[in-house]
């Protein structure tokens, strides 16, 4: 009994430590956590190239793409235990980006060889095609867990002008949100609290960080004079990276910024390394607080975090809540056909 109480106390202390991070970046073989610009945790991942980081608060894990010579898999790092596991099989996928809906426990990813958007339902152990895009190549992707929408970017090739699209989880309601004549959109981030999408809009090494609200009103926040690579959003900031031959840097910009008014602040400089991914510690439960249409999700996401690997070590049985989206949920008849 004493041992169990002591172990639980130690785990509680670990939860407090790991939950204090502001953002995390991935390098080859590493995921590094930062608090106030200082490294607070460094996890070694042998022989892995973790990119496209996503934080899942329900299991306190960082999901990522392990890029491996055009045979990519999606994996997860459990922050408390430092264990990791993969959720896709090696099938020759070239995965550009992915997103995770914690409510239905579903991963959506874009695959650039087949031009498909796939889903992996962790509840149903199911993989299928959500959208077959044929004449366009999907790139970056995010999800709106309240309304059950996927938003994705199409690469600007072969005269394509449908740069930003959305569709529902069940393969219906596909529509173009944003078109462009010359610029290339990349690296989407979504904030349900402000109801905005954030992204880079670049052409020939010059462009902007823009926001697009769910009413399709576009706003430029920052003018860029050098290429930038990856962005993520927290409660207060947009974090983004820049890269050159000798160093990679992380910058932050207040979400309240407007063009030519506020300058970004350098947060971290990393010499002789390549940043592969970045993610902010911005929980979905905080994003949807007070947002109309998201009320029923709050109780689902407010449960204490006890990762599955910790459950097994302590022999604790945790019942999972299989409640569904407020506006959309899967059932067996609506699941896309498996490949």
TrEMBL record:
Look up the domain of life of the source. Eukaryota
The protein, known as: Uncharacterized protein
Instruction: Name its species.
Output: Mythimna loreyi
């Amino acid at each position: 009994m004493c041992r169990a109480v002591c172990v639980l106390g130690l785990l509680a202390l670990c939860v407090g430590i790991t939950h204090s991070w502001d953002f995390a970046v991935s390098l080859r073989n590493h995921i590094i956590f930062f608090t106030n610009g200082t490294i607070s945790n460094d996890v070694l991942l042998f022989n892995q190239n973790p990119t496209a980081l996503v934080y899942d608060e329900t299991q306190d894990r960082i999901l990522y793409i392990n890029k491996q010579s055009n045979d990519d898999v999606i994996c997860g790092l459990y922050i408390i235990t430092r264990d990791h596991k993969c959720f896709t099989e090696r099938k020759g996928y070239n995965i550009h980006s992915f997103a995770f809906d914690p409510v239905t426990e579903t991963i959506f990813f874009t695959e650039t060889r087949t031009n498909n958007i796939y889903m992996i339902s962790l509840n149903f152990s199911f993989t299928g095609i959500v959208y077959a895009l044929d004449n366009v190549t999907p790139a970056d992707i995010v999800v709106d867990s309240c309304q059950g929408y996927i938003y994705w970017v199409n690469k600007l090739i072969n005269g394509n002008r449908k740069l930003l699209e959305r569709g529902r989880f069940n393969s219906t309601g596909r529509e173009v949100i944003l078109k462009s004549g010359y610029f290339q959109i990349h690296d989407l981030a979504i904030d349900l609290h402000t109801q905005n999408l954030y992204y880079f809009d670049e052409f020939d090494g010059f462009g902007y960080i823009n926001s697009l609200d769910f009413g399709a009103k576009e706003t430029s926040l920052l003018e860029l004079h050098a290429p930038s690579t990856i962005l993520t959003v927290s409660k207060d900031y947009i974090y983004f990276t820049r890269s050159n031959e000798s160093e990679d840097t992380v910058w932050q910009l207040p979400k309240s910024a407007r063009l030519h008014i506020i300058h970004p602040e350098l947060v971290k400089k990393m010499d002789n390394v390549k940043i592969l991914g970045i993610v902010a510690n911005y929980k979905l439960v905080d994003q949807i607080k007070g947002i109309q249409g998201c009320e029923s999700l709050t109780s689902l996401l407010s449960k204490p975090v006890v990762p599955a690997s910790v459950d097994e070590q302590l022999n604790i049985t945790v019942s999972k809540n299989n409640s569904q989206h407020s506006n959309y949920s899967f059932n067996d008849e609506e699941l896309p056909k498996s490949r």
